[in-house]
Design brief:
By secondary structure, this protein is α/β, with parallel strands linked by helices. It has 21 helices and 35 strands. It starts with a helix and ends with a strand.
Length: 707
């Protein structure tokens, strides 16, 4: 590398690009967060920058560098036109006037070409002008099968707002961030760009310089004019201020109470009761939060006695810096204002929209069965926060009553199904459901009432919306938005929270006076829910003036984002270069179902129907080449965004394990993936887990070569 430094010293250019096959650099300097400029190495490309700053320079490695740069300086081939475009953009941002390109000559030393002047036309020729986009920051993927209420709400809103561009930024996993660009609300045709991180994300991040820089770089690259922060779970708490300093105003939406306390739901994890610290009480927040961080295997950011004070001070500052604060219910707004010092004039209450269609005919019109009360419970029923222990206590206490319990949702976690059966209650377990079919399922089951057992305050509750849309009145605890909505609409009854005795007493009363249920069902025929269009219109009133005030900026072409990483390109080249095929395409139909799925060969592909959340396939025995790594290429169509995992066994460590596996993110639709099984002593069978959701997958291609 000495000759590169000498060549740089002799050249008067502001920015020098060295190309050619170079020796590997053990400790290349990276241009991140304002480090002093220097040599930046990535195998085939060396960069020397004089006085370059700004977002383009600080995130340069996402354009040119491999995510494994710190471990190995892999070769990474870029054509000169692409390099020149990138360099011109950096020069434009930093007002640098000259560029020089250099390459090794026949003697092996660098010859620098004459420095080139950077014209304004040349610098702008590859740029595109787009309207400012809305950047939406999420804590999880909204495209997964098991997306939560927050993610579903955001997709509904983006779809209904039909902005020219929205950029959904979320962690695909702890080491990958995805930016999904949605044009004019067309969520189904989102363009996905994924970026690797060197330091993993975590649920609680006072700071994470790399992730913060990445979000700022995405915002600049795609010209985000406004940021909508839906959650800071999994994101650095310093990010909102960095956005504001970058000239990007942000809004903050409340979907739980993470801004009030790291416990999210204001529940003491020791007692599983609301923490009185947040309700003018004297709970021991230090012990509560210490337990919370222990349960999530996360070190405390400071001593346990100071966590809550520091957290609330930080989030009070974050929320005060927001252009607008949005809450889905008045109760959520009130709880936030009671715990944090916030400007009330910035707050807006906008109920979530819901366009679930009630079937035109169904059991909701059918008379109830005399003498039996059909009670529905919905959602993540096995979760303690949703009252799993309360449910078990109630079922045991009411097993002699004429009740038929219909459970819609997940009951297989935490040994919950077995514990339900042990209560002796009359159960009908319907299993997981989708938003699109729950109303019909409730009506088909001829449900009389829906019981809600959450032990924490809800900020809205989609499940309550779905029950009402199905014509089913609700019994809710006197907590949060559940209480508020029933008080306002009148379509149900409010009982003492955290009390199986109170729930039993109310069910007994309804059995004695069933006409009360009939009256409620009659009233529900006139119920009208806020639509997604109405919700989107209210949000537009907030976002539109902010987007109109955003400065006009250019965006780089998408080809910079769509590039394969160096590791992906190397893998593909190695796979194609090998002629030693050990599992050919023709044997695709020999792959069989191992667990929670069925397979069917058809027209040259393998149709896979996953019947559970852990489907797996078995690749039949074939001959590995001893001492050689193997490359696996497959093409898979997936029903949702998910993670594919391939498990292998070795002679040294027989059996499947997380340690002996490879993972890849898959998107909804067709994916081409190439994985390297690097162990030289592969032995036994391969297992392929195509995803973690029920649904239909298609395996179009599957081939393994020794390399």
């Amino acid at each position: 590398m000495a000759d590169t430094q000498s060549a740089a010293d002799e050249c008067a250019a502001d920015f020098i690009v060295f190309t050619g096959v170079l020796e590997r650099a053990r400790n290349p300097l990276r241009l991140i967060r304002g480090q002093l400029p220097g040599l930046n190495a990535e195998g085939d490309v060396f960069l020397f920058v004089r006085a370059a700053t700004g977002e383009a320079a600080t995130r340069l490695e996402h354009l040119l560098l491999d995510d494994e740069l710190d471990r190995e300086a892999h070769a990474h081939a870029f054509d000169e036109e692409t390099l020149r475009d990138v360099v011109e953009e950096i020069c434009r941002q930093n007002n640098l006037k000259t560029i020089a390109f250099a390459a090794r000559d026949e003697s092996g030393t660098f010859a620098i070409r004459e420095p080139l002047a950077v014209s304004a036309d040349a610098a702008a020729a590859h740029l595109e002008f787009n309207d400012p986009a809305l950047l939406v920051l999420l804590h999880a993927s909204p495209f997964k099968a098991k997306a939560g209420g927050t993610e579903n709400h955001v997709l509904d809103r983006v779809r209904s707002m039909k902005l020219s561009r929205a950029i959904l930024v979320y962690p695909s996993d702890s080491l990958h961030v995805t930016a999904a660009q949605v044009l004019k609300g067309d969520v189904a045709s989102a363009q996905y760009f994924t970026f690797a991180l060197r330091r993993p994300l975590s649920w609680y991040l006072p700071e994470h310089a790399e992730a913060q820089d990445l979000v700022l770089w995405i915002a600049r690259l795609l010209n985000a004019g406004v940021a909508a922060i839906e959650h800071l779970y999994m994101w650095p708490h310093t990010l909102p201020q960095a956005l504001r300093e970058a000239g990007i105003p942000y809004t903050y939406a409340t979907h739980d109470f993470f801004a009030v306390c790291p416990s999210l739901n204001l529940v003491n994890p020791i007692t599983l009761k609301p923490c009185s610290t947040h309700y003018s009480g004297a709970d021991d927040s230090a012990a509560c939060l210490k337990r919370q961080f222990e349960m999530l295997n996360t070190p405390l950011p400071c001593d346990s006695g100071s966590v809550l004070k520091q957290h609330q001070a930080r989030f009070s500052e974050i929320l005060r810096g927001a252009a607008a604060l949005v809450f889905p219910s008045e109760s959520a707004r009130r709880r936030m204002l009671e715990n944090l010092h916030l400007p009330a004039e910035k707050t807006h209450v906008i109920p979530h929209g819901c366009d679930v269609l009630t079937p035109t005919t169904g059991a909701s019109e059918s008379p109830r069965e005399e003498g039996v009360l059909r009670v529905a419970m919905m959602g993540m029923l096995a979760a303690p926060i949703k009252g799993s222990e309360l449910i078990l206590e109630l079922l045991s206490a009411t097993r002699e009553m004429p009740l038929e319990w219909h459970l819609f949702g997940v009951v297989d976690a935490n040994n919950f199904r077995e514990r339900l059966t042990a209560t002796g209650a009359r159960l009908v377990i319907h299993g997981a459901y989708g938003r699109e079919d729950i109303v019909g399922k409730l009506q088909a089951a001829r449900i009389d009432v829906a019981l809600f057992t959450s032990i924490a305050e809800e900020t809205f509750s989609y499940t309550l919306s779905e029950a009402w849309l199905a014509g089913v009145p609700a019994i809710v605890p006197a907590l949060g938005a559940l209480k508020e909505r029933v008080e306002k609409e009148g379509h149900g009854w409010i009982i003492e929270p955290h009390s199986a005795a109170a729930a039993k007493s109310h069910l007994q009363a309804l059995l004695k006076t069933p006409a009360r249920i009939d009256a409620m069902r009659e009233r529900l025929k006139t119920f009208s829910h806020t639509s997604c269009a109405e919700n989107a219109a209210a949000y537009r009133e907030i976002f539109s003036p902010l987007l109109q005030a955003a400065p006009e900026r250019t965006t780089l072409p998408e080809r910079y984002l769509e590039r394969c990483s160096a590791s992906e390109r190397r893998a593909r080249q190695r796979f194609l270069a090998s002629t030693n095929c050990v599992f050919p395409m023709e044997k695709l139909s020999a792959i069989t179902a191992l667990d929670q799925c069925s397979v069917s060969p058809q027209n040259g592909v393998l149709l896979i129907r996953a019947t559970g959340n852990d489907p797996s396939l078995l690749v039949p025995q074939f001959s590995f080449v001893r001492g050689r790594p193997h490359m696996l290429r497959l093409e898979l169509s997936a029903p949702y965004e998910d993670t594919l995992q391939v498990f292998y066994s070795t002679r040294r460590k027989p059996g499947w394990s997380e340690e002996q596996s490879e993972k890849r993110i898959v998107r909804k639709g067709r994916n081409e993936l190439i994985l390297e099984l690097s162990a030289g002593d592969l032995n036994g069978l391969l297992r392929v887990d195509p995803g973690s959701s029920e649904g239909d997958y298609i395996l179009h291609a599957f081939e393994i070569r020794a390399v």
